[in-house]
Predict the 3D structure of the following.
Amino acid sequence: MSTATLDRGRITARVPLSVQETLETAASLTGATLNQFVVQAALHEAERIIEQERVIRLNAREAEAFLAALDNPLPPNAALKAALEHYATQRDDQTGTLDWAPRPKRV
């Protein structure tokens, strides 16, 4: 085992007693601690949501329409032209990067 310490974060939640009891019951039925159960369940749901947002599922008709649109794109409209002009003004042609600043964090 490595002697390096693992970076860890902490997650806490205040829940009604009935929710805590339900989670504890489910955790004990699976042989996990409450913390293990909550983390495993949250991680499973997070992975499901990420997968759902990253993957586009189309039926055959939708796939054909999508591919047809890629093969025969519409000409650029005014909004796209304005976005491209804005991008060009923000681009630093010396480095090939964008001149941007991150948004301030919400408190």
Observations:
- Strands lie at 91-92, 97-98.
